[in-house]
Amino acid sequence: MGRATGHVEDSRAARELAGISPSDYSEALERGLAVFEAFKTPSAQLTQADVARTLDLPRATVRRTLVTLTHLGYLAVEGRTYHLTPKVLDLASAYLISNPITRILQPLCERVANEFGVSSTVAVLDKADAVMIARALPEQSVTLGVGLGYRVPGPQSALGRVLLSVLDEADRRERIIASLTDMQEEDMEKEVSRIQNAIAGAASDGFSYVADEVDLGFHSVAVPLLRWDGAQIAALNVGTTPDKISAVEMTGPVRARLQEIARQAQPQLI
């Protein structure tokens, strides 16, 4: 086994705190899954050295993982660079097929998108990110490559703030800090406080409206999706530019309609 990097040591320390026995844990599998994470870049074409540097892992470890994933068909190699193949979608489709909720939410997104003529998304929380599990565009629109599995920073997005609103304050704070990088401590505390207040507002208001935080010139309103028993399981939004739907419309009639649609869907979400 190669040298233990800081990444590996941190992972081991976290497992010790969780009480997981080393004999019950596969570090090889962890590294293999981490390689998939490394390819979430605009270029998506990486060399062995790129992956090793991104993951802070030994080159020999990365090489074995890349060769294995290539043999299994999840990666393809061209010269010195690797890229993901469509087979990785099998991993996501297993979740989407096995989860009956997603089969309900995709048609829901399509209905919302066509009603308002803008994009509609359902997302769930994963650490500090809101992850899309259903998404639709109006019939006249053309997708620009943002779809299922796409992530947006939770604390800065309407979807994320709705999802974070059910967590306790300490948990929210930890996830907010994880989303903030390259910020002075004093500025970070101000930003954490601002976002905490916005999330608290989403909890009390039953919706979140965000403009120009994830993308300039783009705004979104999101509402919670509740399971039949009242537990929040996801968030539903619409997003567009202010010239298509104004801020007043977003926070008024559009928000009210989304809340109505969410209430109608609740009995089906089991």
TrEMBL record:
<protein>
    <submittedName>
        <fullName>Helix-turn-helix domain-containing protein</fullName>
    </submittedName>
</protein>
<dbReference type="Pfam" id="PF01614">
    <property type="entry name" value="IclR_C"/>
</dbReference>
<dbReference type="Pfam" id="PF09339">
    <property type="entry name" value="HTH_IclR"/>
</dbReference>
<dbReference type="InterPro" id="IPR014757">
    <property type="entry name" value="Tscrpt_reg_IclR_C"/>
</dbReference>
<feature type="domain" description="IclR-ED">
    <location>
        <begin position="87"/>
        <end position="270"/>
    </location>
</feature>
<dbReference type="InterPro" id="IPR036390">
    <property type="entry name" value="WH_DNA-bd_sf"/>
</dbReference>
<dbReference type="InterPro" id="IPR036388">
    <property type="entry name" value="WH-like_DNA-bd_sf"/>
</dbReference>
<feature type="domain" description="HTH iclR-type">
    <location>
        <begin position="26"/>
        <end position="86"/>
    </location>
</feature>
<dbReference type="InterPro" id="IPR050707">
    <property type="entry name" value="HTH_MetabolicPath_Reg"/>
</dbReference>
<dbReference type="InterPro" id="IPR005471">
    <property type="entry name" value="Tscrpt_reg_IclR_N"/>
</dbReference>
<keyword id="KW-0805">Transcription regulation</keyword>
<keyword id="KW-0238">DNA-binding</keyword>
<keyword id="KW-0804">Transcription</keyword>
<dbReference type="InterPro" id="IPR029016">
    <property type="entry name" value="GAF-like_dom_sf"/>
</dbReference>
